[in-house]
Amino acid sequence: MADFILASVAIFLVGAALLHVITIVIVSGRLIRSTRPQANTKATEGVSLLRPVCGLDHELEATLRSSFRLTYEPYEIIFCVASPEDAALPLLRKLIDEYPDIDAKLLIGDERISGNPKLNNLVKGWAAAQYDWIVMTDSNVLLPQDYMETLLSRWDAQTGLVSSPPVGIGPDGLWGALECAFLNTYQARWQLVADQLGFGFAQGKTLFWRRDILESGGGLAALGQDMAEDVASTKLVRRAGLKVRVAKRPFVQPIGRRRLQDVWQRQLRWSRVRRLGFLPIFLPELFSGGAAPLIAALILMWQGALPPACVLAIGLLWYGAEFVFAWLARWPHAPRDILAWGLRDLMIPALWIAGWASNDFAWRGNDMTADEAGDK
């Protein structure tokens, strides 16, 4: 029995290391091969860009200003704000005044169609959109000039939605680096691998729809039927017999300074969203970081089946591969980030366990339950 257990531990260790390296190779190749789409200067179909805004996020002026610098034509920008007292309103009005040649408007108000505050904020923008291509993009995403072209380049006859995970840039301090450690070489990697294998799923930072597809599935209100709009979006598209595609290269989000408590709460919220939305995918997450394989290596060393030098080599292989990946992708990869990767992997089992403890979470000061959805 002891030999069987040791053999199982060894198989798990080898399998986890191979999977780690293989996924890194797959995504690195995807990012290296990705090319910038040609600017669409002869477009005949316009795109409506909906940006929900709530409060003053880090680098908000830069992320919102990027909305006005897109090369695609024609497009419109619709900023959606729920409260007339929102602190971001003066900035939004200033930016709209600075770019009088850009078709941009600001809509204020809140219509409750679900328990999801972001959807309630967006519904007025969806109704006001003049085009049939509509992209809902969080206010803290920094848009490249070819944002629309990048999304459209992923659309084909089998596509029902194009999405993208965020990639963190500009972390300030260890906890900002920890946020990037979760977003970049961990969560974005797995989402890009899934898309590469034909099993793409949505992430709420960017949701690029054709109007008829969402409305035939129940409209924005249907996206409030799950704990998060990206889970509901993925299910709606798959029910229609279509696929969710993911942008070849993820879009970036400035991170800045974070608190450990904020990182924990955000990751805990996402953990519970995944458990309630896609349980079969959530279950193996306990073993998805570096903690479980390294514990397996230590067990083998303790039993005399693996020399200490091999344990060190496994650790160097694991985080060395991640370092090369971040370097190739041009994502944060300083010594502080390596430390953050280790902290992230220690947190993954704790988050997995805590994800089972409750269906509740907090979003921007709002206490939510499994019957309500929150912003990503």
Provide an overview of this structure.
The chain is an alpha/beta fold. The protein is 48% helix and 15% strand. It is built from 13 helices and 11 strands. Helix 2 links the parallel strand 1 and strand 2 (75-81). Helix 9 (260-277) packs across helix 13 (335-354). Mean pLDDT is 92; it is low at 371-376.
User: Shape, please?
Assistant: elongated
N-to-C series of helices and strands: HEHEHEHEHEEHEHHEEHHHHHEE
Alpha-beta content class = alpha/beta
How would a crystallographer describe the biggest sheet? 7 strands, mixed
Strand order of the largest sheet: 3-2-1-4-7-5-8
Q: What is the number of strand segments?
A: 11
How many helices in DSSP terms? 13
Distance between the termini: 46 Å
Secondary structure: elements and pairs:
Blueprint: H1 2-33, E1 47-53, H2 60-65, E2 75-81, H3 89-98, E3 104-108, H4 117-128, E4 133-137, H5 147-152, E5 159-163, E6 166-172, H6 174-196, E7 206-210, H7 211-216, H8 229-239, E8 243-246, E9 251-257, H9 260-277, H10 279-282, H11 291-302, H12 308-329, H13 335-354, E10 361-363, E11 366-368
Parallel strand pairs: 1-2, 1-4, 2-3, 5-8, 6-9
Antiparallel strand pairs: 4-7, 5-7, 10-11
Helix pairs in contact: 1-6, 1-11, 1-12, 6-13, 9-13, 11-12
